[in-house]
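Researcher: Go.
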Amino acid sequence: MVSEKITGIYDSLSKTHKKVADFVLRNYTEASYLTIRQLSEKTGAGEATIIRFCMKLGYDGYPGFRAAIRKDLSEKNDISARLQRSYQVYEGKGEALIKMFEDDVERIKSTLERLDAEAFFSVCGDLILARRIYIIAGRSTAALGHFLSYYLNMALGNVVLITEKGCDSDQLVNLSSTDAVVGISFARYTRSTIELFRYAREKGAKTIAITDTSVSPLVKDADHYLLTETYIDSYIDSFAAPMTLINAILTEIGRNRNVELEKRIHDLNGFYEKYDIFEQ
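Model: Structure:
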């Protein structure tokens, strides 16, 4: 892997090469999409310096270096490969139990550290002002979509959940600039979510992405995007951090719409009691 090659020679690198190395190691996915000029701008290293850095790692130039990172990412996101890595990471009995809790705490902390607070409050404002809210969340992220739509409907009462390309997605035909669309997707990125989210952008709706990196295919069609950590060495993704982010969005919206929410909850409680919804 490119990251292993970098760490293997890191101590012998020049100060400028270490800047490039640090950026690549911290932003592995983003680095796989950057042109050499873009990487130069982000690191302050000249293009010739970056080429020498690539050659020091054993590549014939920048294209080969970037292609190797993309290959690493493809293998990293392959479910079979991730399952095999989990056997090594969580080798002993009980290791998964302890390490998963510890790592999820770190993922939540990392998500908070890189959270764009201005974008967060803009997202909450757009959702509150929207005539109607559409949530697009396919495959495993449908779990997050169901949770978000359930409580947003409790607070605002104007939410539609779309989990796949089908009859539900037909409702997007009625989109306008007064609507908001939330797209939720993480690597490997569900194609239907990307396409429907792009359609929402073309229709002029406010578009909000909840995703994992700034080079996610959702980002280019988003008015606002919020990043969250999901990757773990397992055949699953961790939704601890995105769920915490969604909790924060829901709580902020509830704080701003407290009068309306209190009335809706009062009405819902009456409904629950009338039809004996809950055991206790």
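Model: The beta strands are 133-137, 159-162, 180-184, 206-211, 224-227.
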